[in-house]
Specification:
2 copies of one chain form a homodimer. The first copy, chain A, is 30% helix and 26% strand. The first copy, chain A, contains 9 helices and 12 strands. In chain A, a hairpin with a 4-residue loop joins β1 and β2 (41-51). In chain A, α2 (63-79) runs parallel beside α3 and α4 (167-176) runs parallel beside α8. Chain A is globular. In chain A, 55% of the residues are buried.
């Protein structure tokens, strides 16, 4: 049997097959499913999985942090639709050697993040397996006039991000290389619900940066049937990312473009609205036929890459 | 650190800690979370996980069957609240060696079951891990006047089940012992949505039998603060279960009491309504102080056991 294709191609192939009922506002293909709710709101539904040794290493993260991160990454999916989170379900696959202390501390972290967002933990299940798996399902509501998709980008829009990128990937790299540094962007990322709640009404297209900037730009371009030009030197990098790039002899922008788990927001906006939003302009939306390009001074190259769970 | 306590004790301990907002109709502790929706209905939300080598062995089940079983077990949770299922999210953890053919066949099975129940598959995610994990989240709606909890049993109620039990556990035992027999109850279980849709309005308490009859009776008794007396010889067993019991030298009732994945419904009902429902009476609800008893002819013993994911 042939080896598995990339996650994106797999999902795209499945999307072609899967028909949904007319009342479904949005099925597969965005950060959340968008479902009917009441006259003012849509119901948002999303699920996200953290797998031991794929998304986290138990040597490097304490259970409270892991619990918080699981909730934050799901809140980020609701933020990426301009919604407000409401409830979570928690499914755990626990290895037989797991201690009750570990589970209690994991829940302590989850409940701390739930409290921060006024989220209700309303159910879930626990079962046994060989490796720890944390699956969170989150619900949210979004005002119908505010719901924002990956598909809303328009030619002429500016591309903006809500904050500095690459911090999580750098921290992971430093940890794996046993080098000192600021590990918090990887261990305690924060969803930018504050940002989408305040400025979301300006956005045309919106996505959270969970899999690296390049991959998220590709999602917006594919769904919106547009192209994009990114100016490499405008990608916001923290001093820590620049320092680590030198130390680890890597182009620091690579951490932003092809790293993951920054959970900042990427959005497109009409040029006249950009000054009203305290984000960073990194490029612009162009015609689809112009493709996705990365510009560095006078040089333009094709923007490729982005973390893919099945090709990395 | 101490070894993990049983799933039930763990969940009970967590429930004590977890406070939910007043608008949450029912949080942790039933087959689904029950959430506000509209003037007539509640929103039901549940999640269920199938883990390779815990819930299934890839040598024994084909991917289409696995896909169908994943959906059926979730539909069963909606049936166990008297609801109708609406949408599912599918999260997969796929080992690196997984083929696209496998994933396609798995989805083929899931989509076949979705079609049967008019369910929309609206999202999910795929990620990499060492063992296959299938996590399904399901939504449903239930009429407010029909919602049925584990906690509704009343002293004097009869305890009934919707069909024969133990078939799934027997099939698994036969498969593991390389003995011939009817494997379908294990490989292709069916949710009893038909049954709850037709007769659910008669039920006082309701649960699906996913973890063995003894465990489900305990849930009803604990949540309803009642006791129960089960008549062992009334537990419905198929001819196959009786035959396999002889062959494998086990008390066939044990498969029903302590097996799992039958997905029949267990409910309590007023005696005068029992004749209107084509289920099997297996016992009655008594005062809490009388405990949970298993009666075999003149002998009464304490009913113990039930499959627990962390103690077996």
């Amino acid at each position: 049997m042939t080896k598995i294709i990339s996650e994106e191609k797999l999902i795209e192939a499945l999307r072609q097959k899967i028909k949904v009922s007319p009342q479904i506002v949005k099925g597969i293909g965005d950060d959340c499913a968008v479902l009917p709710y009441d006259s003012e709101n849509y119901l948002l539904l999303s699920t996200d999985t953290l797998v031991e040794n794929t998304h986290f290493l138990l040597n490097f993260i304490i259970p409270q942090q892991l619990g918080k991160k699981a909730i934050e990454s799901n809140v980020s999916d609701i933020a990426a639709m301009n919604g407000l989170p409401r409830e979570v379900l928690v499914s755990l696959v626990l290895p037989p050697e797991t201690s009750t202390e570990f589970v209690n501390l994991l829940y302590e972290g989850m409940l701390e993040s739930c409290k921060k967002y006024n989220l209700d933990l309303v159910g879930g299940n626990t079962t046994r397996g060989e490796k720890l798996v944390i699956n969170i399902t989150i619900t949210g509501l979004v005002k119908k006039e505010l719901v924002c998709y990956r598909s809303g980008a328009q030619v002429g829009d500016l591309l903006m991000v809500s904050g500095p990128l690459g911090g999580s990937a750098v921290a992971l790299d430093l940890m794996l290389n046993h080098l000192p540094g600021n590990y918090l962007p990887h261990l305690e990322p924060r969803a930018r619900l504050d940002f989408s709640q305040k400025y979301g009404h300006f956005f045309h297209a919106l996505i959270d940066i969970s899999d690296g900037l390049a991959s998220e730009i590709r999602h917006i371009c594919t769904e919106s049937k547009v192209g994009a030009v990114i100016e490499k030197e405008k990608i916001p990098l923290s001093a820590e990312v620049r320092r680590a790039g030198q130390l680890l002899k890597k182009d620091p922008s690579e951490y932003a473009l092809n790293g993951g788990e920054d959970y900042e927001l990427l959005f497109t906006i009409a040029p006249q609205d950009a000054p009203k939003v305290p984000g960073i302009i990194i490029g612009k939306i162009v015609e689809e036929k112009e493709g996705m390009m990365l510009q560095e001074r006078d040089k333009k190259i094709i923007l490729s890459g982005g973390y893919d769970h099945f090709s990395s």
